[in-house]
Amino acid sequence: MTSGVVDDRAIDLPAVQRHVDAVLANFLAEKARAGAGRGLPPEVVQTVRDFLTAGGKRIRALLCVVGWHAAGGDGGAASAVRVAASLELFVAFALIHDDIMDDSGSRRGRPAVHRVMRERLGAGERAERLGAGGALLVGNLALMWAQELLHTTPIESGRQRLVHGLYDAMLEEVMYGQYLDVMGTGRGADDVEAALRIIRYKTATATIERPLQLGAAVAGADEPTMEVFTRLGRPLGEAFQLRDDLLDVFGSPDGACAPGLSDLREGKRTVLLALALQNADPVQRKRLGRLVGRADMEEREAAEIRAILLATGARQETERMIASRYEHVLRVLDGAGLPQSADRALRGLAVKATQYTS
């Protein structure tokens, strides 16, 4: 691991994002050309393209390239950027499938992919079922393309096995996390540790730890650097999801992110809800049991739930958990001895992951 290295050059994160987006645009353009030549339906590539361009912070992609810099990557970062772009296709797959399982109405301000597919088929139960099936296949293709982009990335032969192994581990962890989430919904909703376990597998490793490690592995990182990314990646990933859960229910103070109903309607097994149920009195607990998970929930009921989340201290405790994890990340960085450019970028991304407002 690099120790005490002075490096005044800042990592140009907006430029990294532009390079990642360019790789994705070129890759999908080639898929569209190849598909047209074979008579394949063009709307599949367009659906994935629309999903990728609808927004998203590209935080995983940015962390992948920062990990490459942190591990002393030299020369061009083209391989790290391609791996970073692969991560964005993987995220598209995971979110498309997540929306199907949760029957979410929207994603990033647009109708969810399965809803778009259903609209193309008309109304009725059959259209709904087939729309979900079509979105499932689009998500599968996004995953296949993510792996194709990874496997066609030039990586030094001695590092390729580790990169691919880390990517496979990430896929497995997310699948297990999603399984725990799906099978656990509605059961043991007051179990904070169970909710954190879902976060660790479904979100924390794939959002922070693995992207950092993947970029570092492309650069030929040593074991201490990989361990640093585990020690900061897991708590930062947990904080990222805890913040996301708060934003979904309460929105952001500046109004950039509006309060939502999706988590409450789905009865999502969040730490926020688990804390409320643990601390609720019998009346509050009964109301939460009746309201949370109702698909027809209106804003009036959601406001009542938010009031209970505040009254029980669940929101305040979730904020405390985010803050303690963020402080842990800073302590890890203080002792990591990473190059200054990577250290600065990671501190900035830690703020973005835990305190973002939209």
Explain what the structure shows.
With 358 residues, the chain is an all-alpha fold. It has one domain (13-355): Farnesyl Diphosphate Synthase (Orthogonal Bundle), CATH 1.10.600. It is built from 15 helices and two strands. It has a two-stranded antiparallel ribbon with strand order 1-2. The longest helix is centred in the middle third of the chain and has 28 residues, at 157-184. Residues 2-7 have low confidence and may be disordered.
How many strands in all? 2
**What is the assigned CATH homologous superfamily?**
Farnesyl Diphosphate Synthase
Terminal residue distance: 35 Å
Largest sheet: 2 strands, antiparallel
Question: What is the gyration radius calculated from CA atoms?
Answer: 21 Å
The percentage helix is: over 70%
Number of domains: 1
CATH class: Mainly Alpha
Could you tell me the CATH topology label: Farnesyl Diphosphate Synthase
Please state roughly what percent of the residues sit in beta strands, choosing from under 5%, 5-15%, 15-25%, 25-35%, 35-45% or over 45%. under 5%
- Structural class of the helix and strand makeup? mainly alpha
Spans where pLDDT lies below 50 across 5 or more residues: 2-7
CATH architecture grouping: Orthogonal Bundle
Calculate the mean pLDDT score and round it.
89
Order of helices and strands: HHHHEEHHHHHHHHHHH
In which order are the strands of the major sheet placed? 1-2
Number of helices: 15
